[in-house]
Amino acid sequence: MALDIIGYLIIFGGAFIYGFTGALTPGPVLTAVISETPKRQRGYLVGPLMIVGHAILEAIVILAAFYGLINLIRIPIVYFIISTVGGSILIFMAVQLFYEMKKKEISLSSEIEKSKNKKNSIFKYSPVIQGIILSISNPFWILWWGTSGFTYMFYLFERVSLSGMLEFLYSLGLISIQFSWVVTYFFGHISSDFAWYSFVSISIYKGKKVISDRTYIVILICCGIFFSYLGVKFILCAFVPELKNILII
Question: What is the C-alpha separation between 174 and 80, in angstroms, rounded?
Fold first, then answer.
């Protein structure tokens, strides 16, 4: 049973950590949270509420991907294509992130400035609706899930081997092990979004600067390094599948 719990912790923890590579990246949701928080009576709820809308979309995407691709991913050529394409795009994202930081095009201050100049009819809707609209219209979100997000999700599923009591319950038809993986991954992933955007909206609501630009850049550098590591790892595993059981995370 302990091994079963460890398996779920691996999926939840991996999804949580990897989720920050998407959550921390500047985009329309961050801009909206920064812009809307000071305008509302309970501004500290803006971040979490936008992520509720964001989570609705992600639940649909994860379920659709899982039930549509879980069998395809086991086909060697499909796994090879997804791993190499997903890994290549991850490396590209890392290079682009480092390039923009070098040119000083990314900073939390610039995101705050964008929010001050933002005039869009989208802001007349509730934070939940904004979270849905801004997420689905964000190219990065679509690209992230379409490549590296799915690649990492299926990597975690393949890595975890459940046994013992859960397998016994599954044989009786009382639970679905595969569905439990999806639920665990979803909550692990969305927890990183809730953690980051709650922190942002609560900090702004209390009149504090969220974090310094220097700290924010350091965080993004860590994300870039993580992008690079996973990109190289996915490509290596595509050519040498045995490495999946050796390389960490």
Answer: 34
Domain tally for the chain?
A: 1
Helices and strands (H and E) in the chain: how many: 11, 0
Q: What is the pLDDT of residue 221?
A: 80
Q: How many CB atoms lie within 10 A of CB 37?
A: 25
Low-confidence ranges of the chain (pLDDT < 50): 1-3, 121-123, 162-167
Q: Which residues constitute the domain of residue 195?
A: 2-245
CA-based nearest residue to 11, from 142, 167, 176, 179:
179
In the prediction, which pLDDT does 206 show? 79
Listed in sequence order, the residues at least 6 apart from 103 whose beta carbon sits closer than 8 Å to its beta carbon are: none
| CA proximity to 235, closest of 80, 92, 96, 95 | 80
State both tokens at 89. Answer: 């795009």
